[in-house]
């Protein structure tokens, strides 16, 4: 089974959402149709900003936690801009 860390972006909220999944298409559909109690229900314009393919669930969880811990919009933008950052994350948590 393949796991991915994904980052969604909402222009309306000017926010990112970070998560991990084994089925990105299904998970994106879930976020777009989220109920009112979910964070992602605050907007309907979520788009995939970045996807990182991982070797295992443990690696995906560690990378998701790392990105969330950074609490930085600039860090997320740099992850997309500089592919070597993504490679370093995959190496660090392999």
Uncertain stretches: none
Identify the CATH class: Alpha Beta
Q: Structural class, judged by helices and strands?
A: alpha+beta
SSE string, helices as H and strands as E: EEHEHHH
Fraction of residues in H or I helices: 40-55%
What can be said about the biggest beta sheet? 3 strands, antiparallel
* Binned strand content: 15-25%
- How big is the Rg? 13 Å
> Which CATH architecture would you pick?
3-Layer(aba) Sandwich
Beta strands, count: 3
Q: Could you give the order of strands across the largest sheet?
A: 2-1-3
Per the principal axes of the C-alpha atoms, what is the gross shape? globular
Distance between the termini: 16 Å
Total of helices: 4
User: Can you tell me the number of structural domains?
Assistant: 1
CATH fold descriptor: GIY-YIG endonuclease
Domain GIY-YIG: 1-77
Protein name: GIY-YIG domain-containing protein
Family: Belongs to the UPF0213 family.
Organism: Psychroflexus lacisalsi
């Amino acid at each position: 089974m393949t796991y991915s860390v994904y980052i969604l972006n909402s222009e309306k909220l000017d926010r990112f959402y970070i998560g991990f999944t084994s089925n990105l298409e299904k998970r994106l559909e879930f976020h777009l149709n989220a109920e009112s109690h979910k964070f992602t229900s605050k907007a309907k314009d979520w788009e995939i900003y970045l996807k990182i393919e991982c070797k295992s669930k443990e690696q995906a969880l560690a990378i998701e936690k790392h990105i969330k811990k950074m609490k930085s919009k600039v860090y997320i933008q740099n992850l997309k801009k500089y592919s070597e950052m993504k490679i370093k994350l995959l190496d660090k948590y392999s």
